[in-house]
Amino acid sequence: MRPVFRNARPGDYPELILLLQQAGLSTDDFSGSRLEWFSVVAGTSLLAAGAIEPFGSCGLLRSVVVREEARGARLGSALVTRLEQKAAQDGINSLVLLTEQASAFFEALGYQRVSRESMPERVRSSRQFSSDGAGNAVFLCKHLPVLMQSA
Predict the structure, then answer these.
(1) What is the CATH number of the domain that holds 108?
(2) What one-character-per-residue DSSP string does 53-96 give?
(3) Is 110 part of a structural domain of the chain?
(4) pLDDT value for 28
């Protein structure tokens, strides 16, 4: 089955939580109501997932994960590109993220290291940024192209 990029669905929730946990990513602040943040790559199972937590014109890119056996097929970079496009369509003009292990991956996609203090206050006060692991994280940002709305 060819992988399909799509928005997460309610039936994806248990598998999505398991995928995040297997990758060592936090699921503490996720509930079914936050499923709308997620986009997934699905085959016979979920192959990859990622989310954008909106904070006005800024979005927090989070929980980007590719199932281990699906790595190397560029699903992660394709998913991030789709998330960026969706964010821009939703009026988000920059994405920020924090990572302990994947900074090289995101830097290759155009994200630039920034200081924690340069993050918008609303993002800095989020649960993701106030977690214990955030102290060791690299902070990254990418400004998105402005998409013109058709009249």
Answers:
(1) 3.40.630.30
(2) EEETTEEEEEEEEE-GGGTTSSHHHHHHHHHHHHHHHTT--EEE
(3) yes
(4) 81
Q: What residues make up the domain containing 97?
A: 4-143
Spatial contact of 39 and 51, defined as CB atoms under 8 Å apart? yes
Q: Mark the ranges of the chain whose per-residue pLDDT is less than 50.
A: 149-151
* Cα(96)–Cα(142) distance, integer angstroms: 7
Closest CA to 140 of 68, 78, 91, 80: 80
The pLDDT value recorded for residue 150 is 45
Q: Is residue 150 part of a domain?
A: no
Number of separate domains in the chain: 1
Residue 17: predicted pLDDT: 93
Tell the residue number behind the tokens 């997620």, with chain if given. Answer: 38
**Nearest-angstrom CA–CA distance, 139 and 112:** 8
Phi and psi (nearest 5°) for 22? -65, -30
Q: Is residue 106 part of a domain?
A: yes
User: Cα separation of 110 and 62, whole Å?
Assistant: 16
Pairwise CA distance, residues 66 & 100, whole Å: 16
Within-domain flag for 24: yes
Helical H segments across the chain, by residue range: 13-22, 75-89, 103-108, 121-124, 127-130
